[in-house]
Amino acid sequence: MKLPSHDAAARTPGDGGHRVRLPHFPAGPLRQVARRLLLALLVLVLTVAIVYADRAGYHDNADEQVDFLDSVYYSTVTLSTTGYGDIVPYSDSARLSNILLVTPLRVLFLIILVGTTLEVLAERTREQYRLNRWRSALRDHTVVVGFGTKGRSAVETLCATGLPKNRVVVVDPNHKVIEAANAEGFAGVVGDATRSDVLLRAEAQRARQFVIATQRDDTAVLVTLTARQLNRGANIVAAVREEENAPLLRQSGADAVITSASAAGRLLGMSVQSPTAGAVIEDLIQQGTGLDLVERTVVKAEVGKSVRDTEDLVVSVLRGHRLLAYDDPDASPLQAADRLITIVRAPMVQE
Q1: Chain segment 225-246, per-residue pLDDT in tens
Q2: Which of 293, 294, 242, 284 is nearest to 263 (CA)?
Q3: 3-state DSSP call for residue 348?
Q4: Backbone phi and psi for residue 343, each to the nearest 5 degrees, phi listed first
């Protein structure tokens, strides 16, 4: 599947196509160039000092004398391996210093000059090695499609509940967005997530869950269809702007659909009627602070007890595919296979 607008955005100049980018924090290019220039200058100064100190042992075909300028000239052409031959060492001490000192400095100077090329090759090798290791170790991870406000907030919530950053892969057509995700420690794939080859680069076939937070509802539908085709067993949660598009997303394979505009509108309406209730709801959906809404399994000591006899405040009971309210007569007694949706203090979740 393909959306032309997103595909064009995915192939921005300089991207090199659909690329996987792992987070790394290299030194700035200007600092690296300045460091190389400084090392080359130090080698040149040291060579000039050696030649000038033993200038009496050198012969200049032009005037038979070697001054400071001639020392700089000889050092430059020697380090660059040009070697015109107009200035040559003829004394034993000058030749010995060339063998023991100038020649190693020449080799060091050449290493500095070609260091950029060597570093590029080494960096590519290291990056390919890191990428291969990353691919082989990536299992049961979370693929986040879209790293805007919704996608970023979803990732922050997942990480607050204990999901490691190395188990998150961000997919976005904008390379600057992926760079921002890399800076926060997340791996990223530049490309259009409606294309199966892009999701395969994110190892979508081995992912445990998908968070689809695109800017357009039609894009969300196509991404959901593609993700479900690649991974039949993953949990897919998608966000839409218009509520009328939610059924289409569910038919496309989404397990849960969040209507962002309607949800924000309901929270606004609740806050107008009851600011305190709105603050409580906002606290519940913000993981890591105050009260948290969490889902957990029933512990052995709770089996056979009533919902009201648990230590946590139980809101609902998930039994199979049925979601039972806390006051539903069928919710009690609790069974071993039940899952509880509870309200707890945030520090308890972190512990």
Answers
A1: 999 999 999 999 998 888 888 8
A2: 242
A3: helix
A4: -110, 125
